[in-house]
Design brief:
disordered C terminus; about 400 residues
Length: about 400
């Protein structure tokens, strides 16, 4: 009954419906800020070149040493203060996007190679030209492999081209794994803010919340009903906003008016991935709804609730964004995988990038579900202390 009552109020309140669409306006810009705010991990005098090759590991190590020797060749130095670190990578697009490398050298099966620059580097053109020149001067780029040369230490490419980041097939998946967690958390968690305020703080100020306790309705039923109404409304509005943004991503010709959604559309996420992403998002949404209701109920007035709920609503986005940026640094992924909201963001990122881990999904759902039940229990104890006392006396 509590769920039906709350849902009817939300549908009738036009102001509330308009406020719930606000996240659809700010979510793409939050993704853009996150993207532009990401800085490269290399220092000014130290650059990273990743190499992706189908060579066996033993040959690859020798090849990396040969490329490193080419880049450090004194005859080709353009800037003596730059040192190139060369290492192998299985996910060069992710490394470029997250600032872990400046350039990627990707070898083809026909012996050709292409260089892809980081989309977040301000001097990518200069660095690309520098590497190409050094490889040319060292003899690494050659129209044919010289059988008399030491091909073990100095690999020669018959053709070396410069490719755009977005032209790579795996680039759009990397972008989706980077931006999709923030986009989904923004759309679905921010949407519940006005509903949570109206469900508890506004009813307390109007006196209608006390009438629920007078009627003898169980505290668990009331709070679960309110939480369910917040979740359902957030799902409906968040899904509508997401469909709108995906529609913008399909607009032709592609440009800034796509708000970056064309890259997510181009990732071609499959049905299994969509189901997994929906499960990660729902676990975060349910937990966030419980937290917003708790904060709304603790506030002494509607204005105070608006202030605190607005701040707390950004908690999933802040934790999720930080997790996506730092998950691969110093083994932080394991720790973040057990933290609420961080686990959902990492799960969405991994699935969008093409890695579905059933164990991580089950772990995330269980952790967020237990945390949600604990918060609901705190709300019942805080708002319906009389019910808990009666229940305790009855149990005795």
């Amino acid at each position: 009954m509590a769920f039906v009552k709350e849902f009817r109020q939300q549908v009738r309140d036009r102001r509330l419906l308009v406020m719930m669409f606000v996240p659809a306006l700010i979510a793409p810009f939050m993704c853009l800020v996150l993207f532009l705010g990401q800085s490269g991990s290399s220092q000014a005098d130290e650059r990273v070149l990743t190499v992706t090759s189908a060579e066996p590991q033993s040959d690859l190590m020798a090849e990396l040493a040969g490329i490193a020797g080419s880049l450090d060749s004194d005859s080709a130095l353009d800037r003596e203060d730059v040192t190139w670190l060369v290492r192998s990578s299985d996910s060069p697009m992710n490394d470029l996007l997250r600032g872990r490398s400046d350039l990627a050298l990707i070898e083809g099966l026909d012996g050709s190679a292409r260089i892809v620059a980081s989309p977040i580097s301000l001097d990518s053109a200069e660095l690309t030209a520098q590497v190409v020149k050094r490889l040319q001067n060292s003899g690494t780029i050659h129209p044919a492999v010289d059988a008399s040369s030491d091909s073990t230490m100095r690999r020669q490419f018959p053709q070396l081209t410069v490719a755009s980041f977005l032209d790579e097939a795996s680039a759009k998946r990397a972008l989706a794994g980077y931006l999709l967690p923030i986009l989904l958390l923004s759309l679905f968690t921010l949407t519940g803010s006005p509903i949570a305020i109206d469900a508890v703080a506004a009813e307390k100020e109007n006196g209608t919340f006390e009438s629920l306790k007078v009627l003898g309705a169980p505290g668990w039923g009331i709070m679960m009903g309110k939480m369910l109404s917040v979740v359902c409304a957030a799902v409906v509005m968040g899904a509508a906003s997401l469909l709108l943004l995906l529609g913008i991503g399909h607009v032709e010709p592609r440009g800034l008016w796509n708000l970056g959604m064309d890259n997510i559309v181009g990732a071609e996420i499959g049905a299994e991935q969509v189901i997994a992403i929906a499960a990660f998002t729902m676990s975060a949404l349910i937990l966030n709804s419980a937290i917003l209701l708790l904060v709304s109920g603790i506030a002494n007035s509607v204005k105070e609730a608006q202030y605190w709920v607005s701040l707390v609503a950004f908690l999933p986005i802040a934790m999720g964004g930080a997790s996506v940026l730092t998950a691969d640094e110093h083994g932080a992924g394991r720790l973040l995988g057990v933290l609420p909201f961080s686990n959902s963001a990492l799960g969405i990122s991994n699935v969008a990038s093409g890695h579905i881990e059933l164990g991580a999904l089950i772990q995330t759902v269980l952790i967020n579900a237990v945390t949600t039940l604990i918060i609901v229990a705190i709300m019942v104890r805080t708002f319906f202390m009389g019910h808990l006392r009666i229940f305790a006396l009855t149990a005795q």
